[in-house]
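queue> pop job 88
queue> type: inverse folding (structure -> sequence)
queue> payload:
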């Protein structure tokens, strides 16, 4: 199984999807799991995890401001999904999780048990903060399925989704301010995971994200060998 880490705009979702296709893995997209769980929520909806109540409207607001949602809630959703997939015996390609040290500590032992440490490969896609913000403000999604379209030379002129033909739009929470908050969250809360993974004997390889999608993909395939 493969875990892809990287700042906003590094294209980790796109790469996770490509890897899933190439290596016949299940693409576990954290943001899609969150979207599904936050869809059609009502004012007082909550979920109890380990005795604590999490109000979904509050969580949604945090996310819209670029903040990370409560880690115990995310862990609860992700673990359920992984359990479901492990039953089917499928390998995973994960983007966007774990995203905090808390999540890493909860999910890593669980993954080790299911897949064994030697089968867990972590790829860190690097990107400068300037590039992260620049790409973030230009990212689009399609109207129908919310497929993310990474901003690159190849996609700059696209007006319709290559997969379903629906119109491409800018997400309303992809403003410069929100992207800056997301980047700060990544630096302060996601990057400390690297040391945690190293300490726990997991292999991490770095790949330069400031290249075309295809070149990054080829580098990842090399790193996985
Ligand atoms: Zn689409």
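queue> result:
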């Amino acid at each position: 199984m493969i875990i892809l880490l990287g700042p906003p705009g590094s294209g980790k979702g796109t790469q996770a999807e490509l890897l899933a296709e190439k290596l016949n893995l299940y693409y576990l997209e954290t943001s899609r799991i969150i979207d599904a769980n936050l869809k059609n929520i009502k004012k007082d909806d909550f979920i109890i995890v380990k005795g604590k109540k999490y109000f979904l409207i509050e969580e949604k607001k945090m996310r819209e401001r670029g903040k990370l949602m409560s880690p115990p809630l995310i862990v609860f959703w992700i673990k359920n999904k992984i359990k479901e997939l492990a039953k089917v015996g499928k390998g995973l390609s994960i983007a966007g999780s774990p995203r905090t040290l808390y999540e890493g500590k909860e999910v890593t032992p669980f993954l080790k048990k299911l897949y064994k440490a030697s089968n867990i490969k972590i790829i860190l896609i690097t990107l400068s903060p300037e590039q992260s913000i620049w790409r973030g403000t230009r990212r689009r999604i399609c109207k129908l399925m919310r497929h993310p379209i990474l901003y690159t030379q190849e996609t700059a002129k696209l007006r319709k989704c290559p997969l379903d033909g629906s119109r491409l739009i800018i997400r309303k929470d992809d403003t410069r301010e929100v992207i800056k908050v997301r980047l700060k969250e990544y630096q302060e809360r996601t990057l400390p995971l690297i040391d945690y993974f190293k300490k726990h004997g997991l292999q991490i390889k770095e790949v330069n994200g400031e290249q075309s999608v295809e070149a990054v993909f080829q580098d990842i395939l090399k790193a996985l060998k």
